[in-house]
Design a protein that fits this description.
The structure is a single chain. This protein is an alpha+beta fold. About 35% of the residues lie in helices and about 25% in strands. It contains 6 helices and 7 strands; from the N terminus they run H-H-H-E-E-E-E-H-E-E-H-E-H. Strands 2-1-5-6-7-4-3 form a 7-stranded antiparallel β-sheet. The model has no long low-confidence stretch (mean pLDDT about 90).
Length: about 210
Amino acid sequence: MTQPVSDIAFTPSVKKVQARLGSRQHYARIEQGPGWQDVITSELVDFITARDSFFLGTASKAGQPYIQHRGGPKGFLKVLDDHTLAFADLPGNRQYITLGNLAENKKAFIFLIDYANQSRIKIWGNAEVVENDQALLRQLTASSYRSRPERGIRFHVEAWDVNCRQHIPRLYAEKHMQATLQTLRDRISVLEKENAALRGQTAEWVKHSS
Protein backbone atom coordinates (compact mmCIF):
# COMPACT_ATOMS: atom_id res chain seq x y z
CA MET A 1 0.00 0.00 0.00
CA THR A 2 1.28 3.47 -0.91
CA GLN A 3 2.13 5.56 2.12
CA PRO A 4 -0.35 8.46 2.51
CA VAL A 5 1.12 11.90 1.91
CA SER A 6 -0.26 12.98 5.29
CA ASP A 7 2.10 10.53 7.02
CA ILE A 8 4.67 13.31 6.89
CA ALA A 9 2.72 14.82 9.81
CA PHE A 10 0.68 11.85 11.02
CA THR A 11 3.52 9.86 12.55
CA PRO A 12 2.82 6.64 14.49
CA SER A 13 2.83 8.71 17.67
CA VAL A 14 0.30 11.17 16.22
CA LYS A 15 -1.93 8.34 15.01
CA LYS A 16 -1.92 6.82 18.51
CA VAL A 17 -3.13 10.12 19.95
CA GLN A 18 -5.76 10.39 17.21
CA ALA A 19 -6.98 6.89 18.05
CA ARG A 20 -7.08 7.65 21.78
CA LEU A 21 -9.00 10.90 21.26
CA GLY A 22 -11.38 9.56 18.62
CA SER A 23 -10.28 11.18 15.33
CA ARG A 24 -8.20 8.38 13.77
CA GLN A 25 -11.15 6.82 11.94
CA HIS A 26 -11.98 10.16 10.32
CA TYR A 27 -8.42 10.69 9.07
CA ALA A 28 -8.12 7.07 7.99
CA ARG A 29 -11.08 7.65 5.65
CA ILE A 30 -9.39 10.75 4.25
CA GLU A 31 -6.25 8.70 3.60
CA GLN A 32 -8.32 6.31 1.46
CA GLY A 33 -9.39 9.20 -0.80
CA PRO A 34 -7.42 12.02 -2.44
CA GLY A 35 -6.15 13.11 0.98
CA TRP A 36 -3.34 15.63 1.22
CA GLN A 37 -1.42 16.65 -1.88
CA ASP A 38 2.26 16.81 -2.76
CA VAL A 39 1.91 18.70 -6.05
CA ILE A 40 1.42 22.46 -6.27
CA THR A 41 -1.99 22.92 -7.91
CA SER A 42 -3.37 26.03 -9.61
CA GLU A 43 -5.50 26.67 -6.52
CA LEU A 44 -2.41 26.66 -4.32
CA VAL A 45 -0.61 28.96 -6.78
CA ASP A 46 -3.48 31.45 -6.56
CA PHE A 47 -3.39 31.36 -2.76
CA ILE A 48 0.39 31.79 -2.58
CA THR A 49 0.60 34.65 -5.09
CA ALA A 50 -2.06 36.61 -3.17
CA ARG A 51 -0.07 36.55 0.08
CA ASP A 52 2.28 39.27 1.29
CA SER A 53 3.57 37.31 4.28
CA PHE A 54 4.00 33.81 5.65
CA PHE A 55 5.61 31.98 8.56
CA LEU A 56 8.63 29.73 8.06
CA GLY A 57 9.35 26.93 10.51
CA THR A 58 12.75 25.25 10.87
CA ALA A 59 14.50 23.26 13.58
CA SER A 60 18.06 22.67 14.69
CA LYS A 61 19.72 19.28 14.45
CA ALA A 62 18.71 18.72 18.07
CA GLY A 63 15.08 19.50 17.23
CA GLN A 64 14.88 22.99 18.74
CA PRO A 65 12.08 24.68 16.73
CA TYR A 66 12.11 28.19 15.34
CA ILE A 67 9.36 30.19 13.61
CA GLN A 68 10.18 33.24 11.51
CA HIS A 69 7.84 35.71 9.82
CA ARG A 70 8.64 36.56 6.21
CA GLY A 71 7.03 39.53 4.47
CA GLY A 72 7.18 41.36 1.16
CA PRO A 73 5.05 42.49 -1.77
CA LYS A 74 2.27 40.16 -2.87
CA GLY A 75 3.68 37.16 -4.68
CA PHE A 76 7.19 37.43 -3.20
CA LEU A 77 6.96 33.72 -2.42
CA LYS A 78 7.49 32.38 -5.93
CA VAL A 79 6.30 29.13 -7.48
CA LEU A 80 9.18 27.74 -9.57
CA ASP A 81 7.49 24.49 -10.64
CA ASP A 82 4.86 22.07 -9.38
CA HIS A 83 7.07 20.92 -6.49
CA THR A 84 9.22 23.95 -5.72
CA LEU A 85 8.81 27.35 -4.05
CA ALA A 86 11.45 30.00 -3.47
CA PHE A 87 11.89 33.42 -1.93
CA ALA A 88 14.59 36.03 -1.50
CA ASP A 89 16.40 36.21 1.82
CA LEU A 90 16.51 39.90 2.70
CA PRO A 91 18.74 41.66 5.27
CA GLY A 92 17.35 41.49 8.80
CA ASN A 93 18.59 41.40 12.38
CA ARG A 94 21.55 39.18 11.42
CA GLN A 95 20.76 36.40 13.92
CA TYR A 96 20.79 33.84 11.07
CA ILE A 97 18.86 31.22 13.06
CA THR A 98 17.00 29.99 9.99
CA LEU A 99 20.21 29.72 7.95
CA GLY A 100 21.97 27.89 10.78
CA ASN A 101 19.10 25.46 11.20
CA LEU A 102 18.93 24.71 7.47
CA ALA A 103 22.69 24.07 7.42
CA GLU A 104 22.15 21.03 9.65
CA ASN A 105 18.46 20.15 9.18
CA LYS A 106 16.73 20.65 5.82
CA LYS A 107 13.22 19.94 7.10
CA ALA A 108 11.06 23.06 6.96
CA PHE A 109 7.45 24.18 7.15
CA ILE A 110 5.52 27.08 5.58
CA PHE A 111 2.31 28.40 7.10
CA LEU A 112 0.20 30.78 5.00
CA ILE A 113 -2.88 32.55 6.34
CA ASP A 114 -5.53 34.75 4.74
CA TYR A 115 -7.18 36.60 7.62
CA ALA A 116 -9.70 38.46 5.47
CA ASN A 117 -11.14 35.23 4.04
CA GLN A 118 -10.39 33.12 7.14
CA SER A 119 -8.33 30.44 5.39
CA ARG A 120 -4.90 28.94 5.91
CA ILE A 121 -2.60 26.42 4.24
CA LYS A 122 0.19 24.29 5.72
CA ILE A 123 3.13 23.13 3.59
CA TRP A 124 5.77 20.57 4.62
CA GLY A 125 9.05 20.09 2.81
CA ASN A 126 12.79 20.56 2.69
CA ALA A 127 14.53 23.90 2.23
CA GLU A 128 17.96 24.84 0.98
CA VAL A 129 19.93 28.07 1.07
CA VAL A 130 21.08 29.16 -2.39
CA GLU A 131 24.13 31.44 -2.50
CA ASN A 132 25.56 33.33 -5.48
CA ASP A 133 22.82 32.46 -7.96
CA GLN A 134 22.14 35.80 -9.64
CA ALA A 135 19.62 34.35 -12.10
CA LEU A 136 17.52 33.00 -9.24
CA LEU A 137 17.80 36.25 -7.29
CA ARG A 138 16.57 38.25 -10.28
CA GLN A 139 13.61 35.89 -10.52
CA LEU A 140 12.84 36.32 -6.81
CA THR A 141 13.34 40.07 -6.48
CA ALA A 142 10.52 42.55 -6.94
CA SER A 143 11.83 45.65 -8.75
CA SER A 144 9.59 47.90 -6.64
CA TYR A 145 10.85 46.59 -3.30
CA ARG A 146 13.57 48.73 -1.74
CA SER A 147 15.51 45.96 0.05
CA ARG A 148 18.10 43.95 -1.87
CA PRO A 149 18.32 40.17 -1.35
CA GLU A 150 21.41 38.53 0.10
CA ARG A 151 20.61 35.00 -1.10
CA GLY A 152 17.70 32.78 -2.05
CA ILE A 153 15.91 30.02 -0.18
CA ARG A 154 14.42 27.20 -2.22
CA PHE A 155 11.64 25.09 -0.70
CA HIS A 156 10.88 21.60 -2.03
CA VAL A 157 7.24 20.72 -1.31
CA GLU A 158 6.52 17.24 0.10
CA ALA A 159 2.94 17.75 1.35
CA TRP A 160 0.34 20.43 1.84
CA ASP A 161 -3.10 20.69 3.36
CA VAL A 162 -5.85 23.29 3.75
CA ASN A 163 -6.45 23.96 7.44
CA CYS A 164 -9.92 24.51 8.92
CA ARG A 165 -11.35 28.03 9.15
CA GLN A 166 -12.34 27.73 12.81
CA HIS A 167 -10.95 30.35 15.21
CA ILE A 168 -9.30 32.50 12.50
CA PRO A 169 -10.07 36.15 13.31
CA ARG A 170 -11.30 38.18 10.36
CA LEU A 171 -8.71 40.94 9.90
CA TYR A 172 -8.09 43.38 7.07
CA ALA A 173 -4.85 45.07 6.07
CA GLU A 174 -4.85 48.84 6.53
CA LYS A 175 -4.13 49.51 2.86
CA HIS A 176 -7.13 47.42 1.85
CA MET A 177 -9.37 49.53 4.06
CA GLN A 178 -8.20 52.93 2.84
CA ALA A 179 -10.74 53.20 0.00
CA THR A 180 -13.62 52.27 2.33
CA LEU A 181 -12.40 54.65 5.02
CA GLN A 182 -11.98 57.48 2.53
CA THR A 183 -15.55 56.97 1.28
CA LEU A 184 -16.77 57.22 4.89
CA ARG A 185 -14.65 60.33 5.52
CA ASP A 186 -16.04 61.98 2.39
CA ARG A 187 -19.60 61.14 3.43
CA ILE A 188 -19.02 62.51 6.94
CA SER A 189 -17.64 65.73 5.45
CA VAL A 190 -20.77 66.15 3.28
CA LEU A 191 -23.05 65.46 6.25
CA GLU A 192 -21.16 67.93 8.45
CA LYS A 193 -21.58 70.65 5.82
CA GLU A 194 -25.29 69.84 5.45
CA ASN A 195 -25.68 69.88 9.23
CA ALA A 196 -23.92 73.24 9.49
CA ALA A 197 -26.18 74.67 6.79
CA LEU A 198 -29.30 73.38 8.55
CA ARG A 199 -28.13 74.85 11.85
CA GLY A 200 -27.64 78.17 10.12
CA GLN A 201 -31.11 78.03 8.59
CA THR A 202 -32.61 77.11 11.95
CA ALA A 203 -30.82 80.01 13.64
CA GLU A 204 -32.17 82.42 10.99
CA TRP A 205 -35.70 81.07 11.40
CA VAL A 206 -35.54 81.48 15.21
CA LYS A 207 -34.17 85.02 14.82
CA HIS A 208 -36.96 86.16 12.49
CA SER A 209 -39.64 84.37 14.51
CA SER A 210 -38.82 86.07 17.80
